C-alpha cells in the first residue's frame, strides 16, 4: 500500500492533520528527521485527536535509512509546487512513497532528484503553494482513487 513520507516536517499541526489522514486511509506515515518539533508537542497531539492509536507511524533518522528500510523496493514520488507531472495526469502504483518536503522550503533539489517520479498540484499563479496537510490530502486521495482503493475505505458502503 501507499506510504506518506514527510521529509524534515516543521509544523506540528500539519503533521498531526496528516497523521489523521493516514489513520483514515490506512496509509503508513514516515517522518524523516530531523523534525522541527517534539513528538510530544501538544499541537501535534491535538491535531491528531484520538486517532493516534490508528496511525502506523515510524520516525527515521534520514531519508537513506527509510529507503534502505521500509522504503526498499518502493517508488519514491516527489512532490513540488512547481515541478513534475500535473496530478491529474499522474499514474500511481500501490508501492509508491509520496514524499513531501518541509513547509518553509519544500523538497531540496538533491532530495527531489532521488525521486523516480514527481507530481504537482495545479494551482493558479496567484497562489505560491498549498498548505502541506492540504496538499498531502489531495495527492493521497488522488492516488487512492487512481488505484481504485476508495470503495474499500467507504464506511457507508
What is the number of independent domains?
Answer: 1
**What is the count of β-strands?**
7
Order the strands across the largest sheet as they lie in space: 3-2-1-6-4-7-5
Residue fraction in strands: 15-25%
The radius of gyration computed from the alpha-carbon positions, rounded to a whole number of angstroms, is 15 Å
User: What does the average pLDDT come to?
Assistant: 92
Shape annotation: globular
**Biggest beta sheet attributes:** 7 strands, parallel
- Bin the helical content: 25-40%
CATH fold name: Alpha/beta knot
CATH homologous superfamily label: SPOUT methyltransferase, trefoil knot domain
CATH architecture classification name: 3-Layer(aba) Sandwich
Describe this structure in words.
By secondary structure, the chain is of the alpha/beta class. It has a single domain (3-153), classed as Alpha/beta knot (3-Layer(aba) Sandwich), CATH 3.40.1280. Helices cover 32% and strands 19% of the residues. It contains 6 helices and 7 strands; from the N terminus they run βαβαβαβββαβαα. It has helices at 12-25, 42-48, 63-68, 109-112, 132-146, 150-153; strands at 3-7, 28-32, 57-60, 75-79, 85-86, 96-100, 117-120. Helix 1 (12-25) runs parallel beside helix 5 (132-146). The protein is globular.
Output the keywords.
single chain, 157 residues, alpha/beta, Alpha/beta knot, 6 helices, 32% helix
Brief synopsis:
32% of the residues lie in helices and 19% in strands.
Question: What layout of secondary structure does this protein have?
Answer:
Elements: E1 3-7, H1 12-25, E2 28-32, H2 42-48, E3 57-60, H3 63-68, E4 75-79, E5 85-86, E6 96-100, H4 109-112, E7 117-120, H5 132-146, H6 150-153
Parallel strand pairs: 1-2, 1-6, 2-3, 4-6, 4-7, 5-7
Helix pairs in contact: 1-2, 1-5
